[in-house]
Amino acid sequence: MSRERRGLYGVVALLALILGGGTLLAEGSSTPTWRDDIKPLLCKRCLSCHGEVSTMGCRVLERYRDLCEGEQPPARAGDLSSPFLRVLVEEQAADEAGPDHRLLVDEDQAALIEAWIQAGCPRD
Length: 124
Ligand code: HEC
Hints:
Elements: H1 3-26, H2 34-45, H3 47-50, H4 64-68, H5 83-89, H6 107-118
Helix pairs in contact: 2-6, 5-6
This protein binds heme C.
């Protein structure tokens, strides 16, 4: 086999490895991301109230920047006491508005959000 040919196989193998790894990430076996994990979850469970066209005067949580940027963002990188996680796992204070958010997600979904915050709230 020519040296060039062998080099080419090496590149192809490396590409397969990278692309394969990307697929694994998308399946959630590694660090969760906003794009692949958090956004779809919000769409399913949260945006009926926290969407751009909000129906209950709730805080908008539709885009990455609504959740992670600005003053007092609901999700703070590495901070497990962030409101985004807290409302989903802790008992609601008597004076807190809104539904009991713990009923809105299951354990796996709460764990996913926890892992995402712990990983620093990666975007994609
Ligand atoms: C039935 C409507 C409804 C749904 C569905 C809902 N929420 Fe809420 N949520 C509220 C209301 C009302 C409040 C109190 C007002 C506010 O702070 O926006 C609230 C408050 C919050 C807060 C506190 C905001 C803050 O900074 O103190 C967070 C975080 C939150 N919700 C996240 C979520 C997430 C995540 C989901 C989806 C798993 C969700 N909510 C689904 C109605 C809802």
